[in-house]
Every structure is written in structure tokens, then in C-alpha cells.
Amino acid sequence: MNDYKEMYFQLFNKITDVIEALMRIQQEMEEKYIENKEMSE
Fold first, then answer.
1. Residue 4 host element (H or E)
2. How far is residue 35's CA from residue 28's CA, in Å, rounded to a whole number?
3. Separation CA 9–CA 19 (nearest Å)
4. 41 or 4: whose pLDDT is higher?
5. pTM (2 decimals)?
6. With 70 as the cut, is the pLDDT of residue 24 above it?
7. Cα–Cα distance for residue pair 14/6, rounded to 1 Å
8. Model confidence band, residue 37 (pLDDT cutoffs 50, 70, 90)
9. Max CA distance (Å), the chain
10. Dihedral of CA 12/18/20/23: which sign?
């Protein structure tokens, strides 16, 4: 049972890492969009 528990925790941590990376990328793209919009005005 411990193997299953360890695998679950590893999976959870990897999924959390991916979600955090996607959130960072989204924030970066939103900032670039705002910068480009301000420059074109």
C-alpha cells in the first residue's frame, strides 16, 4: 500500500508543478499583452 501512496503523492506534486507553470505562463502572456496594448496607443 505504501507504494501506491508514494505514487499518488508524486503524481499530485507533478500535477501541481504543471499547474503552477501554466499559471506563470498565463501571467507572462497577460503582461506582454498589456505592454503591447500600451505601446500601440
1. helix 2-40
2. 11
3. 15
4. 4
5. 0.76
6. yes
7. 12
8. confident
9. 60
10. negative
How many whole angstroms separate alpha carbon 25 and alpha carbon 7?
Answer: 27
Find cell 506563470 and name the residue: 24
In the structure grid, which three cell numbers stand for residue 18, read together? 504543471
Query: Per residue in 4-20, is it b (16+ CB within 10 Å) or e — as a string?
Result: eeeeeeeeeeeeeeeee
**Rounded CA separation 28/31 (Å):** 5
Cell 498589456 -> residue: 34
DSSP state of 6: H
